[in-house]
Structures are given as structure tokens and as C-alpha cells.
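Input (structure):
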């Protein structure tokens, strides 16, 4: 990963999950992912990131 990407990921990992950030461990099934995405869009907006350990595989 590029240095800026690493620092961005480190910043995100330091944040708690909440109304604007959620980590997804399993992104293999589209329906739960889309439900979470719609929930974010219908509330305060936010970011959904793959779970950091998934990136290391």
C-alpha cells in the first residue's frame, strides 16, 4: 500500500465503529453489504471499510 493509504487506514482503525464507520469482516455476500450501505445512506452518511485483517490475507 502507498504511504498515504497506510496512514489513512491507521487513522480509520483508531476510530470506533459507529453511525459513520463500520468494518466488514465478510464481504463475500452482496445482500448484507448492500443493507449496511443503504442504512448508512439513510442516516448520517458514512464509510464502510473491509475489515483490516482481510486486507492482510
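Output (sequence):
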Amino acid at each position: 500500500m502507498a504511504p498515504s493509504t497506510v496512514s489513512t487506514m491507521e487513522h480509520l482503525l483508531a476510530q470506533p465503529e459507529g453511525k459513520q464507520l463500520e468494518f466488514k469482516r465478510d464481504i463475500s455476500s452482496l445482500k448484507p453489504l448492500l443493507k449496511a450501505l443503504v442504512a448508512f445512506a439513510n442516516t448520517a452518511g458514512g464509510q464502510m471499510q473491509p475489515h483490516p485483517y482481510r486486507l492482510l490475507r
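Notes: Residues 30-42 form the longest helix (13 residues). The CA atoms of residues 37 and 48 lie 7 Å apart.
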